[in-house]
Amino acid sequence: MIPEAREVHLSRKDRKVLEACCRSPVTLQRDLKRARIVLLAADGRSTRSIAKEVGVQPRIVSLWRHRYADHGLEGLQDKPRPGKQPIYTKTTDKRILKLLDKPPPQGFARWTGPLLAEALGDVDVQYVWRFLRSHKIDLVARKSWCESNDPNFTAKAADVVGLYVAPPAKAIVLCVDEKPSIQALERAQGYLKLPNGRALTGQSHDYKRHGTTTLFAALEVATGKIIATYSKRRRRVEFLDFMNSVTAAFPNRKLHVILDNLNTHKKNEDWLKAHPNVQFHFTPTSASWLNQVEVWFSILQGQSLSGTSFTSLKQLQEHIDTYVNAYNDRAEPFVWTKKKVRQRRFKGRRITQL
Predict the structure, then answer these.
(1) What are φ and ψ of residue 104, in 5° steps?
(2) In this predicted model, what pLDDT tens digit does every residue of 32-87 receive, in sequence order?
(3) Are 219 and 293 in contact (CB under 8 A)?
(4) For the chain, where are the E strands, in sequence order?
(5) I want to staple 187 with a disulfide (CB 3.0 to 4.6 A). Which of 145, 203, 266, 300 is the partner?
(6) Which residues face 230 on adjacent strands?
(7) pTM value surpassing 0.70
(8) Is residue 229 within 8 Å of 245, Cβ to Cβ?
């Protein structure tokens, strides 16, 4: 049953607005129909005739006649709708974050989306993934860190960094360390053409071992040049033999040698007494990365050793010697850019970082 038709009286202002709405090419169809219904109703047309002309049901015409008569132009707008209540709320988000602070189930190394959803019980795995993405939480990516428990960390770090930033006048600063167990591996190498036409360089998975060697290296901080030698082992005697060759390379010069806390580097007082021009400086415990020769070892691995093949230990050593010579020809000193030593709270402890 159609309600009794309401009379519609338009003001000049409302009529101009509705007519402009009908003329506009960007007016939505729903708004256009509502405007035409009100304009025709104001002209005295019946509900059924308006419905036939506009192409809607008579009850729709009656609805908008009543809405305009009661509320004016505002009545032609859609009323706010409550919509569907969200299934998951901030409480759900807090539950996910709280669960991430707990260890994963036994037998698993880390949490995954399905494991989180299973542990929560009432949360879909797709929502878990959306939540993790929105909070930029990566369950797979891992970063490592090292905490130093050395009570003299700041003093030792300042001593080492001070040698980098402001080395003593007329003295040589050297960074010394060993790269042990470098393997001479023989692998088949070459280019591999894939079915899609792409060519890749690579090596075979299987290999043949031809022994290992230990590389002793000293980096001169002022120039970036390297002194290197080899040994089968890395005992104290091999370390002191290398130091003898280093002191021979800088006769009558004061040497400041930066070392890590390997046991063979310490308790060498007798050797130091025999070489009064040499002074050892040790990096803090668990902070051997302060030794710049570690940076060079990384460069050596990336530029010279990775992806290579050797048929003998001698070939490996000759290969490294050739690289060292080429590196020394274009060597430049590393530049220390960090200016402040700061401390920050980490897992309830105070640790020092550079």
Answers:
(1) -65, 170
(2) 999 999 999 888 888 899 999 999 999 999 999 899 888 888 888 887 777 788 88
(3) yes
(4) 171-186, 189-193, 199-203, 208-220, 226-231, 254-259, 278-282, 342-346, 349-353
(5) 203
(6) 215
(7) no
(8) yes
